Amino acid sequence: MKKLNLTTTLMAAFAASTLSLSPLAAQEMKAKPAGDASPVMVMDKATFVKVAASANEWEIRSSELARQKAQNPELKKAAEMIIADHRKAGDKMKATLEAKGPAPAMPPALAPKQQKMLDQLQAAEGKDFDTLFLDMQTQAHMEAVGFFRTYAGSGEDQSLVGFAKETLPSLETHLAHVKMLVAMQ
Q: What residues contact 139, with CB distance under 8 A and at least 6 apart?
């Protein structure tokens, strides 16, 4: 029993000390330049291309919905930026792949997770749509930043590594912009 209480006390102390440092640590954290990307894991070219293309398509389709359904005009502006940047990124990835020969086929459909997210957005209306769109964009861009950072730091195809490094700042900008919109709600 004493051992359990000591373990519980130590865990609570650790959690309290970690939480008390969080605001300070958050203030000191700054986005790393893409060249400083450090890999979380190693990713192969085929996986990167498949996931990046599918995520890119989701960003475009979900933002097209926001252009039509969002109530907040700032969301509509963000959707326009996302659409333009992601179309540009998709074209750049395709050109990068084609420069080395026949490009692998881009996924014709969204990944199942992304299709479900798009279906949820299509069903949402009004302020519920705005909230859901921002939540999904925040999550999707957090995943994309991690994914692109990983490939930028560990990718096997140097031309795609360059593409990932070039695209990463745009993804980070989208993430920051979406977080700012969340804070304004």
A: none
Q: Which residue range is the domain that position 94 belongs to?
A: 39-184
Residue 63 domain-assigned (yes or no): yes
Residues 62, 57: Cα–Cα separation, whole Å: 8
The amino acid that residue 35 corresponds to is G
> Which tokens go with 88?
């540009």
Q: From residue 86, how far is each of 19, 39, 71, 124, 126 by CA, in Å?
A: 36, 23, 22, 23, 25
pLDDT tens-digit map of 27-51: 343 455 555 555 456 789 999 999 9
Total domains present in the chain: 1
Position 114, amino acid: Q
**Secondary structure percentages of the chain, helix, strand, coil, to 5:** 80, 0, 20
pTM, two decimals, is 0.75
